[in-house]
Amino acid sequence: MDIPGFPARRAALTLIDAVLRRGETLDQAAGSALARVRGDADRALARAIAGEVLRWRQDLDALIDSATAQVLPGDAKPRAVLEIMLAQVLRLDTPPHAVIATGLPLLAGGPRRLAHGVFSTLMKRGVTLPQRPNLPEAVAARWGERAGAIAAGLAEPPPLDLTLRDPAGTDLWAERLGGVSLLPGHLRLPRGAAVEGLAGFGEGAWWVQDLAAGLPARLLGEGRGRRVLDLCAAPGGKTLQLAAAGWHVTALDIAGRRIQRLRDNLARTGLHAEVVQADALDWEPPAPFDAILLDAPCTATGTCRRHPDVLHRIGMRQIEDMVPLQQRLLDRAAGWLNPGGTLVYAVCSLEPEEGELQAARIGLSPDPIQAMELPAGLAPTSDGWLFTDPGMLSEAGGLDGFFIARWVR
Fold first, then answer.
1. What pTM did the predictor assign?
2. What percent of the chain is modeled with pLDDT above 70?
3. Which positions are annotated as active-site residues?
């Protein structure tokens, strides 16, 4: 079909279907879904439409249900098309006539007439979305009293965070790129910047890394030539941090494609690490380490503001599947430390089963995180652990959700 913009809408529909029906991530689905979309702008538009639908789906569906005599099934194609159409008007400021021209061709016959009627009714009503999205019921139940604040942090996609190779240049790079810094070595830019076109990318002066994702490596401090293991290291942001902080880094990961990204990042920044592709459950180090950073595989529900698909893909089954792997990795890591060595455990998850319940079973001596080690506005718990979530630092643009704990052998 030769309607301008139609391939992007068709791709958005395919992306949403892949998440909701097959449990794929948006990244996993993008390869095939965007193959027929020409141009970076249209591919970005397809991703943006799908992301906004997944972020606001509960509220979009409530509007749709308010304008239909009979509730449409949750997996009905007219519902999905209406979600796409409404998200464009209410979140992306697309004119209604353009939405109709590119959305209705996704349907035919009676479903097209139904969608047109529902959309027109809602436009005549002048409907709006709430200030913050309503979470899926199961997600809200899991997150309990934190759910409202977390949801507020999901109302907008996140800004762009950079970690600088040389923290001493923070002020210089903030001025050069027009960003703000929330702590030395960090820079925050408005979202939408074309990363590879920014000053400093080619020379490896910085790399993209969410503010929260940069905290675990910071909690190991300066390396001064000591040996550290970055366990489950790819795609490499923490490896780069540790190498820049003077550690002799061994970076281990099982995934070949992600390992290549790590190597590429090391080459671009001019930093060095020993890169090992292996299964951490089988691998044995030649000697103990002075420090270990375990950013463990997890459900990644803390990344929901940038990956809203996790709101719909992750439930208790996926959480429970991760817990044994995290336990085994923690047990192995604890045994690879030198006496006096430090272990930092982190997960980008908001689920207690993957965070505090894991930390409570470790037999090492706690090394409580201190407030002075954190950006202003964050504080450790009485146990010395750190929780972050998308509702925190909201006035500064928020951050991902993480659980972080630290021990000494």
1. 0.95
2. 100
3. 348
